[in-house]
Structures are given as C-alpha cells and as structure tokens.
Write a structure and sequence with these properties.
The complex is a heterodimer of chains A (262) and B (333). Chain A is an alpha+beta fold. Helices cover 58% and strands 8% of the residues of chain A. Classes of the chains: A alpha+beta (262), B mainly alpha (333).
C-alpha cells in the first residue's frame, strides 16, 4: 500500500516516523542540483578556457573529465559529506536515509547515484519517476537497489496564536486537571484540525462555519467534560478557541520553541 | 502520562541536548571509539529519549518536540542497531591489491556468465559477417570500421603524420569517460532483472565478433591483434566485470532459490558492486591511456609483434592479479 510516511519500530517498541518525499518534490531537488552542476561547470569552464589558451589538448581533456567527474560524483560527494543531502535536497529539506533507519553507508550512496543512469531513461527521470510513483515507499530503482528512501523534514511553522487568541478570557483554564486530561486525550491530528479551522475561519461560508464549529465543539466537549459554569454561554467558536489555547499554549508567555532545546 | 508538560520539557531537555551533542560528535568523527562509560551513557540517553518520544507522541500540542525527538531517536537507532561494520579509513593500495580481486573471485560465476554471454554475441556477430558481409553497417555502429580492412591497414601503415598529434590526451580522456559510462550503464541495467545487462554484453560481443571475423577474413589477423590487444585485453575484461556486477545485482533482485528477503540480498551485495565498478573504472583509465598512446600506432612506427607481446604480458598480469592477488589474506567484510 502506498503511504507518505515510513514507520520504523525499534526493538524497544518505540515507533518513529519519517515523512517520505514524493516524486515532484524530488524532481525539483534534482532540478536545483542540475543548476548547481551547470553553474559549477560554467565557472570551471572559464578557468579551463584560459588553460586551453596555454595548452589546448590538456585544457580540453581536463574539461571532458571534469564534466564527467562533477556530473557523476556530485550526488555521491554531497550525500556522503552532508549525511544524505545535496544542495537541492537541503533547500527542499529532503534527506536520503536507510530504508530501515540504519546508518547510511558509502556503498548505498554510490549504488543509488550510479543507478541514475537507468532511472533517468529515456529523459527527465521518466523511469525513476514511474518507479517512485508505483513504489509504496516512493523509491526509484536506485533507491530500491541501495535500500534507501528519501525523506522530507518539513518546517513546522508555529501558528500565530497570540493574534488568534489574544484578549479572550479562557474559562477552561480554571481547571488545570481537566486541561491536562484534554491534552492527554486529544490526538495531534485532532488538535491540528481545530487549529486549522480557526486559522481559516474567514474562508468559510457563514452557515457552513457555524455548522463546522458546532460539530467540532461538540466533539471536543464529548472528549473531556468541563463544569457547566465554565462552558455555559460560551459560543462554539469561542469554545474551540479555548480548547486550542489549552492545547497549544501550555507554557504561558515564556514559550520556548520546541526543537531548539535551551 | 505527562501531567505537567512544562516541567517535563524543562526536565528532559538537558538530556536531549547532551544526547544530540554525542550524536553530532559520533557522526563527525567516524573513527571515534567510545569508552565503556561513554557507551553506557549513550545507551542510557537513547533509551531515555526514546521513552520521552513514546510519552510525547500522544500529546497534541508538541509536533515540533515530537519531530525533534524522532530525529534524535532515528539517528541513534542507526548507530546502535547497525550490525554492518563501521566505515573505516580507505586504503587505496589495500583496496586495489586485496579487496578488488577477492571480490572478483567471490562472484566469479557471475563473471563466467558475463564471458559466456559475450562469447555467444561474438559467435553471432562473427557468423553474421561470415555469411552476410553486407550486414556490416547494421552490426558495426562506428564508421571507421565499415571500410575494407585491407585498405585501412594499407593506409595506416603508409601514414606519414601522426593523426592524433596534439589530441592524444583528449582522445584518451574521451575513451575513459565513454567506456566508464557504458560500464556503469551495463551495471545499472542489472535492475531490469539482468535483461539490459545481457543485451549490453551480447551487443558488445556481436561488435567484437564481427570486427574480428571481418579482419581475419581480409587476412589482417596480425594487424587486428596488434591494434586491439594492447588496450583490449584490459578494456574487454573491464566491461565483462561491469557485466559481472550487473548480473550480481540481477541475481540478488531475482533471488532464485533464496529464502533471504530482497532487502537483505541487496544489502549483502551492494559493497561488492561498488568495489567491482570502481575496479572497472581503474582498468578503463589504463585502457584509455594505452588506446590513445599506443594502440593507434602501427608498423612501421611500432612492430606488431611488440604490441602483441605487450598485450599478452598485460593479459597474463591481469589474469594473475585477478586470480591470485590477496589470496591467503582475510577477506574484507
């Protein structure tokens, strides 16, 4: 079955996931890499043109071999030295990793890069793209042979909660034990739905918005029941704001961005 | 269950930071060997971080922390559970004199298969030219091979100027890069369950057989040997070894009679494939150099006997190298 996430279960029973990169993103990364190779060749070409003036034969030979080495070795060099990334992959936040989460070996990098010769057939990586599209882990032929996958590490943008929730009194905050239970019971996907609904509220038709917030508020009310004095008279949309406030603003004003430990 | 998230994050963060530092160091210094206390600490931090990840996974409000912990656990998982030998410093001489021939011998059956396919192609090409000389333009893609061999030999032998003068280095490099690309392609086509590799080897054989029979038929056997042997005795085995690597890949992919999973089969041969193809590259550099600087010069510049003798010596040395070099030494894993 095709999936966009690779789950790896460690022997300790911990599951971690890696988001798989799709063929289009990978194509753009490849395109950037091609531009980098062309730029490198252009700069090198100027130097070699000067050398050709001194010794035409040697200069030409050097340019032939340089093109071959750069075009073939570019991916190998960068993926090995940048732990699975080239310039294009770095810009698009992609990375080559072992399919089972093991340490990426030099052999794997060489194999996946040499097999580009077949993946790029007949033009513009048609074979590789097709393989990637059909494969459950979005692997091109080189990846299959090398036991590698390309994962993406998207930047998780912090929602502007201050603007979204500013100036509103949150009656649910009076019950920290229920707030903790709410955080425990609500899955990341559910929390994200609530947040997205609030962020995109202006995009909805008015009637649809009332219905949507009604359904969402009903769902969250059912998950953790707060005392009536905290919820009576609170509109569905405001209830949802309060829930999002509890879920996302857990560290008050001194919030430190997660992922950047202090 | 995390009751106070803020306290949990504040309490655990120093451990994650320390763990990340250890991972950074480990990845930056592949030669690093940790002491027992360092290993114990590393393992402890891994388990602690993995446990934190398990705790936080269910928490809706911390997608970035979860991703950060997943990243740490993923990196450490590779270090802790990797059973393949750690990458060591590369010693080119040891690799060439020991690893390469040992790898070649380990998969010599794939090489024999590669030779057999090429020989079938040779027989086909030779017979086709013998029975239908008009088929030359179809079988030989290179224009300089289409001329009458006797006429070509006469022209080459009476040439007074060096047609490669001032161009030898470029010609040599073009041969090296072209042949290396063909070899990599032959290897890569192993991913077509070997069909592409077989076609490449067969087609190379067809051209070789057709050229050989064409020149022998025209009474130019000595010229043929003097022309092809100096570089061909290295270049042809190099292509055959590329075919060997391609067939190795195909055999791992097919896995006939093997109960080992595909991933494991491919993992087992990936190092050997890389060794073989780098070996092919080295051989082709030598062949390209010889083809440009020696093979294109004929009598009276260089006697054919000398060229043939040179080719024969190369062949003996190459055979000895592949058959004997590195024997008795512990194979690289």
């Amino acid at each position: 079955m095709k999936t966009s996430t690779l789950f790896i279960r460690t022997p300790e029973g911990i599951v971690f996931s890696q988001l798989l990169a799709g063929p289009v993103t990978r194509f753009f990364a490849w395109f950037i890499d091609q531009l980098c190779i062309s730029a490198a060749m252009f700069i090198l070409g100027i130097a070699l043109d000067l050398l050709e003036l001194i010794n035409w034969n040697f200069g030409l030979a050097l340019s032939v071999i340089s093109y071959f080495v750069i075009s073939t070795g570019y991916g190998i060099f960068f993926e090995w030295n940048w732990r699975g990334q080239t310039i294009g992959k770095k810009l698009l936040r992609l990375r080559v990793t072992d399919v089972e989460g093991m340490r990426l070996q030099f052999n794997q990098i060489v194999v996946r890069n040499l097999l580009r010769f077949v993946d790029s057939l007949p033009a513009f990586y048609f074979v590789g793209g097709l393989a990637c599209w059909l494969n459950a882990k979005c692997q091109r032929l080189g990846d299959i042979a090398a036991n590698t996958v390309v994962i993406r590490n998207p930047r998780v943008s912090e929602p502007d909660l201050d603007q979204l929730l500013a100036g509103k009194y949150n009656s649910l905050r009076q019950y920290p034990h229920l707030a903790a239970r709410l955080r425990q019971r609500i899955s990341p996907a559910e929390a994200d739905i609530a947040l997205q609904a609030l962020l995109r509220r202006e995009e909805f038709d008015e009637v649809a918005r009332v219905e949507l917030f009604g359904e969402l508020a009903g769902h969250f009310r059912a998950r953790v029941e707060f005392p009536a004095e905290a919820t009576d008279g609170v509109a569905d949309e405001q209830y949802l704001r309060n829930v999002v406030d509890l879920l996302y603003r857990t560290r008050g004003e001194n919030r430190v961005p997660a992922g950047h430990p202090q | 269950m995390i009751v106070d998230l803020q306290r949990f994050l504040a309490g655990e963060r120093p451990f994650w930071t320390e763990f990340e530092k250890m991972l950074d160091r480990l990845e930056a210094e592949p030669e690093l060997r940790m002491t027992l206390p360092q290993l114990q600490l590393f393992h402890h931090l891994y388990e602690r971080t993995a446990a934190d990840l398990a705790k936080i996974t269910t928490l809706s409000s911390e997608p970035e922390t979860r991703r950060y912990l997943e990243n740490l656990v993923a990196r450490a998982y590779g270090e802790i559970h990797e059973t393949r030998e750690k990458q060591r410093r590369f010693f080119p001489l040891k690799w060439f004199s020991q690893t390469l021939p040992q790898t070649f011998r380990r998969h010599v059956r794939a090489f024999y298969l590669s030779v057999a396919i090429t020989l079938v192609g040779c027989a086909f090409g030779g017979l086709a030219i013998a029975f239908d000389p008009d088929a030359k333009p179809v079988l030989m893609p290179f224009s300089h091979l289409l001329a009458d061999p006797a006429k070509r030999v006469a022209e080459e032998e009476k040439a007074t100027h060096d047609r490669l003068a001032g161009f030898k280095t470029t010609f040599s490099v073009e041969l090296m890069t072209h042949n290396t690309k063909v070899s990599i392609f032959t290897l890569a086509l192993g991913m077509t369950w070997g069909v592409g590799t077989i076609i490449m080897l067969f087609y190379n054989g067809v051209i070789l057989g057709a050229v050989a029979v064409d020149y022998i038929h025209a009474g130019q056997t000595k010229f043929l040997l003097g022309w092809l042997m100096p570089h061909g005795v290295v270049e042809i085995p190099a292509i055959l070894i590329a075919g060997q690597a391609g067939l190795l890949l195909a055999l791992a992919l097919i896995g006939r009679g093997s109960r080992v999973p595909l991933k494991t089969r491919l993992r087992e041969i990936s190092g050997d494939i890389v060794t073989l193809i780098f070996g092919v590259g080295v051989l082709l550099v030598w062949a390209g150099f010889i083809e440009a600087f020696l093979s294109q010069y004929h009598e009276p510049v260089i006697p054919y006997e000398a060229k043939i003798a040179f080719g024969a010596i190369e062949l003996i040395l190459l055979s000895l190298f592949l058959a004997k070099s590195g024997t008795g030494k512990k194979p690289e894993s």
